[in-house]
Design brief:
single chain, about 400 residues, four-stranded antiparallel β-sheet, 14 helices, Transglutaminase-like, CAP/Cytokinesis_protein, Papain-like_cys_pep_sf, Transglutaminase domain-containing protein
């Protein structure tokens, strides 16, 4: 999905927490790293190796990103939807450019490498002195520093859009901004990311009604975030959609976000179905391998009894070994087959995509037919092995 950048430089109150190291020293030392460092972890660890305080470490990462990642204007006209977050950060490092989703995900990845909690927050924006909502949706970061929640927009601080082009020029206006101040220009889709106990609605934001911010609220956003992070991906998205809808669907940005979230749920559901299908196939492969081994030993038994030397000394032991091995492998194969069959109950596709539904239905039908075929083959093989045990016993 394409994300926007600021049209003009903005100025907000930035929280200053820095100690003896000093912001100037950190900024000077953090703009470059050795060329051989290529991953988010490597760069983050290098930037923060001599820093002690969380705000200093976050500042170093933020400075490096804003000075080394440029905005990719091409993605405004060719939006890309991502399903894997790590791919976004890797792409930003490889190309040294991206849209705000790249800035935000890279920041979170680098913070994660040094044990600092950061969140990627999607939403929409407007200039602090403007009434109109910016034409593209956006993404930024929430970060926990010294157990307090702050907000950062590395995309806007890396440069700005002016007269049809991008100016890569450090701004420094959106680093560790207090939630109420940050909200003047940035509105998260999900109110949980306002980091406020009295979050405002989308309707209030569009009308620039911030009166609620002066009132006491009872929304425990910290607890809500903690509960949310414990959920599986689909439940997390579903809960987020519910909160967004409750806050009001007032513009196209919100509608597009809900649509993309619903598509992501569909993606996760189908991937879950494919994973279950592959797991059953894995059990079936183990079953088939064991059954084939049983057939091989069974055939070896037949080969021996059909040869004249089958009457020679020592053959009885080999015949017994072949039958025993055939029986053992068949038993193991049947066990794997039972496991596969027991997992069929969880092989239900819960999405709504017609193509996925048909694909799931067809593949499950084929799987059931294959399992039935294997069970029939097993019965025949088991009967033959039993008959040949009787033959062997009579032969003694």
């Amino acid at each position: 999905m394409t994300k926007a950048l600021s049209f003009l430089p903005l100025f907000l109150s930035v929280v200053q927490l820095f100690g003896q190291t000093g912001i100037e020293s950190i900024d000077s030392a953090s703009q470059k790293v050795p060329k051989e460092l290529n991953t988010a972890d490597e760069i983050a660890l290098y930037l923060t190796k001599d820093l002690k305080k969380e705000d200093e470490k976050v500042r170093a990462i933020y400075i490096w990103i804003t000075h080394n990642i440029k905005y990719d204007m091409a993605q405004i006209s060719t939006p890309i939807t991502y399903t894997e977050e790590t791919n976004i950060a890797e792409e930003a490092l490889k190309n040294r450019k991206g849209v705000c989703e790249h800035y935000a995900q890279l920041f979170t990845s680098m913070c994660s490498a040094i044990g600092i909690t950061s969140y990627v927050i999607p939403g929409y924006t407007r200039q602090t002195d403007g009434a109109k909502i910016d034409p593209l949706n956006h993404a930024w970061n929430g970060v926990v520093v010294n157990n307090k929640y702050y907000l950062i927009d590395a995309t806007w601080d890396a440069g700005y859009f002016n007269k049809g082009g991008y100016v890569h020029e450090f701004q420094g206006d959106f680093f560790l901004v207090e939630p109420k101040e940050f909200l003047k220009a940035h509105m998260p889709f999900d109110p949980i990311w306002q980091f406020l106990n009295n979050p405002i609605t989308h309707t209030a934001y569009v009308s620039k009604d911030f009166s609620r911010l002066g009132q006491r609220g009872n929304f425990a956003f910290r607890d809500s975030i903690a509960r949310m992070t414990a959920l599986d991906s689909i439940s997390r998205i579903e809960k987020s959609i519910a909160r967004i809808q409750k806050a009001g669907v007032t513009n196209v940005h919100i509608r597009e976000e809900i649509s993309q979230m619903e598509n992501l749920i569909e993606y996760y559901r189908y991937n879950h179905w494919v994973s279950r299908f592959n797991a059953i196939n894995g059990e079936l492969k183990l079953a088939v391998d064991e059954i084939n081994s049983a057939v091989s030993y069974h055939n070896a038994f037949f080969k021996m009894i059909n040869k004249k030397q089958g009457e020679s000394q020592g053959t009885d032991g080999e015949l017994k070994t072949n039958l025993s091995n055939a029986s053992d492998h068949l038993t193991k194969g049947k066990a794997f087959l039972r496991v596969a069959e027991s997992q069929l109950g969880s092989l239900e596709y819960l999405g709504s995509n017609k193509e996925h539904l048909q694909n799931a239905k067809t593949n499950k039908k084929n799987l059931l037919a294959y399992i039935a075929q294997l069970k029939e083959s097993n019965l025949k093989l088991e009967a033959s092995i039993t008959k040949n045990w009787e033959y062997y016993q009579k032969r003694l």
